Automatic annotation (TrEMBL):
Keywords: Membrane, Transmembrane, Transmembrane helix. The keyword Cell cycle does not apply. This is Drug/metabolite transporter (DMT)-like permease. It is found in: Endomembrane system. It comes from Paenibacillus endophyticus. It is a multi-pass membrane protein. The lineage of its organism: Bacteria, Bacillati, Bacillota, Bacilli, Bacillales. Pfam families: EamA (PF00892).
Length: 292
């Protein structure tokens, strides 16, 4: 029993570390002066470079995929690339608080997609949560519009980024039935980074010439929010319920907003606090009453 208690405490500590880690993502993006497509590209490429030693262990699976799996992986990768483009661009236009709290609508969008694709229905409490979260998003958008048209555009980009990652998650749910988490993540990251590389070529963005500070931020994005955040949550799915791990989306905007207040000197307005609380409560209600 003592060992079991210690194990639970360890998983809870790792869970908290993961939430803090992903919360630094928006801070690192705001600190960088590089184009957001370059930031996202190197974040993904560097993550895979760090994970490269594990490829040999999964080689049999990774290099024997069907044509259908490759097509779905490519689509999932493009959606992930689009998510990073839209969300990171939103951070250049609106506050960290608004951008990250709107991003928490992802599980709601995943549920909507699941309904239309897999005919999975939501119960009454989930619908209430969905409604509250959407009302909160409208409040944030209207408040940001009163302050600045750019801020509203940033909110819209974050909302579209949440939709893109929801599509990415739905495809991943289908692929993960017959594929390990490592193989899926590695190929999706590689394909997303490559899609961003083509985008950077078309846009004429430079691949080199960045300062040591920029390269450091690219590496920090790969290590902190990606490996100690998203990869860690994937691992915790073996030891914690999916609903519990999904709750991490509620922690990110809270900690990100606090970090932005301390590190970026971003103040939180009354409407952001109220609307943000409404969104977080709505998403919590949605996840809490969701079916495993």
């Amino acid at each position: 029993m003592e060992r079991s208690t210690k194990s639970v405490a360890t998983y809870e500590l790792l869970y908290i570390i993961g939430i803090i880690a992903i919360s630094f993502s928006s801070i690192f993006v705001r600190w960088s002066e590089a184009d957001v497509a370059v930031i996202a590209m190197y974040r993904l490429y560097l993550t895979n470079l760090i994970m490269l030693p594990l490829v040999w262990k999964y080689r049999a699976e990774m290099f024997h995929l069907s044509a259908k799996q490759w097509r779905l992986l490519a689509f999932s990768g493009v959606m992930l690339a689009l998510h990073f483009l839209l969300w990171m661009a939103s951070l250049r236009l609106t506050t960290v608080a608004s951008s990250t709290v709107i991003l928490t609508l992802e599980p709601v969008m995943v549920m909507l997609g699941s309904y239309f694709i897999f005919r999975i229905k939501a119960n009454r409490m989930m619908l209430w949560g969905m409604g509250l979260a959407l009302v909160g998003s409208v409040i944030i958008g209207s408040g940001d519009f009163a302050l600045s048209g750019d801020a509203l555009l940033g909110d819209i980009l974050s909302l579209l980024g949440a939709a893109a990652v929801a599509v990415h998650m739905l495809i991943g749910k289908q692929l993960r039935k017959d594929m390990s988490a490592f193989a899926y993540n590695f190929w999706v990251f590689a394909l997303a980074a490559t899609a961003l590389a083509f985008y950077n070529i078309v846009r004429g963005n430079s691949f080199t010439g960045y300062s040591s500070k920029e390269w450091g931020l690219f590496l920090l994005l790969a290590i902190v929010p990606t490996l100690f955040g998203h990869y860690l949550f994937n691992w915790l799915l073996k030891h914690m319920s999916a609903a519990a791990v999904s709750m991490s989306v509620l922690g990110e905007p809270v900690i990100s907003s606090l970090l932005a207040w301390v590190l970026l000197k971003e103040a939180l307005t009354g409407y952001q606090l109220a609307a943000g609380a409404l969104i977080l409560f709505g998403v919590w209600l949605f996840i809490r009453h969701g079916k495993e």
